[in-house]
């Protein structure tokens, strides 16, 4: 699992829907168990499945994402480079989704969004953004790297769709 975010003045999601870019994006990354290593999975077009949850910063979420908040509260403990924290207790996957409709999603075959950006991912992007407290996203904007510089705008720029087909699935 990893996050992408912008800054106080920029949006940090890596996917857009109808031209809208949200404040952040959570990726829940799964490696295909047919491959024994991450390196081996990177060499195959079906090496990974990534669930992408768009994040919208609000003052007070309509529905609190309880599981996600457990993670986001701990980010404050990681402000300095090399900091470590433990998130307890374990949580269920559905606690991360709050009120996201998991029966609606976009899917396409694409690449990792961090180097080496290999074409090895089946993406599932949920169109409804998850509301998170802006106070939690601010914790990300305060993280520092090994040079004491802020870690902001850690997202990949929007890429051309090229010849990809994007599918939309709705169980309705």
TrEMBL record:
It comes from the Eukaryota. InterPro entries: CA_dom, CA_dom_sf, Carbonic_anhydrase_a-class. CDD domains: alpha_CA (cd00326). GO terms for cellular component: cytoplasm. GO terms for molecular function: carbonate dehydratase activity; zinc ion binding. Residues 1-170 form the Alpha-carbonic anhydrase domain. SUPFAM superfamilies: Carbonic anhydrase. PANTHER family: CARBONIC ANHYDRASE. Belongs to the alpha-carbonic anhydrase family. This is Carbonic anhydrase 6-like isoform X3. It comes from Drosophila lebanonensis.
């Amino acid at each position: 699992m990893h996050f992408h975010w912008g800054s106080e003045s920029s949006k940090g999601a890596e996917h857009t829907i109808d031209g809208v870019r949200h404040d952040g994006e959570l990726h829940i990354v799964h490696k295909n168990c047919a491959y024994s290593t991450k390196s081996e999975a990177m060499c195959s077009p079906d090496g990974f499945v990534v669930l992408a949850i768009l994040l919208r910063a609000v003052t007070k979420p309509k529905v609190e994402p309880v599981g996600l908040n457990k993670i986001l509260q701990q980010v404050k403990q990681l402000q300095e480079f090399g900091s470590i924290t433990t998130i307890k207790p374990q949580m269920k996957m559905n606690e991360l989704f709050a009120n996201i409709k998991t029966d609606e999603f976009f899917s396409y075959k694409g690449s990792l969004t961090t180097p080496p950006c290999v074409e090895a991912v089946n993406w599932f992007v949920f169109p409804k953004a998850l509301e998170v407290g802006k106070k939690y996203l601010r914790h990300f904007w305060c993280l520092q790297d090994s040079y004491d510089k802020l870690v902001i705008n850690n997202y990949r720029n929007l890429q051309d769709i090229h010849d990809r087909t994007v599918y939309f699935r709705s169980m309705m």
